[in-house]
């Protein structure tokens, strides 16, 4: 009787160890997916700012929205919203699936940044990101 109880107890301990290991693996995979999505959102905003076209931005009406989509590893979308004559709100969103074969929902992260346009003393168009807490994670 004691040997049977010992076998059942050891089996329960082994089962608990397997369950704990599987949960730890899922949590780390979710963490990687969140970071991958955040990197994708930051890259989408950086790509929008790096490829900024003054002609396109100047022709955009105040209050209007320009959406671009792309993908490099994770699906990304970028929104450029014109707030006034020189101020733009650029939002990058990235979605990343988990690394455990699709058992968890897709992770979505958004980053927003305020961008101001202007011109220098020679008349060339310049683009500046607000210094104080330029990036904001959106939910």
- Taking all residues together, what is the mean pLDDT? 83
Helices and strands, in order, run as: HHEEEEEE
Q: Write down the Rg.
A: 24 Å
Query: First CA to last CA: what distance?
Result: 57 Å
Number of domains: 1
What's the overall geometry? Answer: rod-shaped
Report helical residue fraction.
Answer: 25-40%
Main sheet summary: 6 strands, antiparallel
- In DSSP terms (H or I, runs of 4 or more residues), the helix count works out at 2
Oligomer: single chain
Low-confidence stretches: none
Strand portion, in percent? 35-45%
Give the beta-strand count: 6
Main structural class: alpha+beta
Q: Overview of this structure, please?
A:
With 139 residues, this protein is α+β, with helices and mostly antiparallel strands. It has one domain. Helices cover 40% and strands 35% of the residues. The protein is built from two helices and six strands, in the order H-H-E-E-E-E-E-E. Strands 1, 2, 3, 4, 5 and 6 form a six-stranded antiparallel sheet that branches. Strand 4 and strand 5 form a beta hairpin. The longest helix is centred in the first third of the chain and has 49 residues. The chain is rod-shaped. The mean pLDDT is 83.
Structure in a nutshell:
40% of the residues lie in helices and 35% in strands.
Blueprint of the fold:
Elements: H1 2-50, H2 54-59, E1 65-72, E2 74-82, E3 87-96, E4 107-119, E5 125-129, E6 135-138
Antiparallel strand pairs: 1-2, 2-3, 3-4, 4-5, 4-6
Which short descriptors sum up this protein?
single chain; 139 residues; alpha+beta; six-stranded antiparallel beta sheet; rod-shaped
């Amino acid at each position: 009787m004691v040997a049977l109880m010992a076998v059942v107890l050891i089996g329960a301990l082994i089962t608990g160890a397997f369950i704990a290991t599987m949960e730890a693996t899922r949590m780390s995979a979710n963490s990687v997916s969140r970071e991958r999505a955040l990197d994708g959102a930051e890259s989408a905003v950086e790509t929008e700012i790096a490829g900024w076209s003054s002609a396109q931005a100047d022709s955009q009406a105040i209050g209007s929205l320009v959406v671009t989509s792309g993908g490099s590893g994770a699906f990304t979308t970028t929104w450029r919203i014109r707030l006034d004559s020189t101020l733009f709100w650029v939002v990058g969103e990235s979605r990343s699936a988990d690394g455990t074969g699709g058992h968890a929902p897709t992770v979505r992260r958004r980053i927003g940044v305020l961008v101001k346009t202007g011109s220098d003393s020679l008349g060339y168009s310049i683009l500046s990101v607000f210094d104080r807490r330029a990036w904001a994670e959106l939910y």
